[in-house]
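Batch manifest, entry 17 of 40.
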Amino acid sequence: MWLGFGAMAGAALCLLVVAGSGTAFAQRMSPPPGPFAPYDAPPARGSGPGVDGEGAARMLRARGFTNVSVIRRRGPTILLEANGPRGERVQVVVDSTSGAISGMKVIGYGDKRY
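Output type: structure tokens
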């Protein structure tokens, strides 16, 4: 039986949509860890009502940061400086109520500043 080009193209498109939907669903369920995994990791559970400067520094060290120092605390935010897991020198803003990293800025590499 001869099908027109439009019917064959429609059938092929339908087949691609059905075959490709399983892959997209599987990718959404378990994304692979990316290069920013140390920065995007959720805060540890059961950390209590909040974290202080030393608790934020411990959390960063557990994520692979080195040479961590607390710069200042302003309200519910803690500003720290550290060397990131890839060696970059960063300023990190940590929310003291949740323990999550809420901001970060690269300020140099190793011991050198930009």
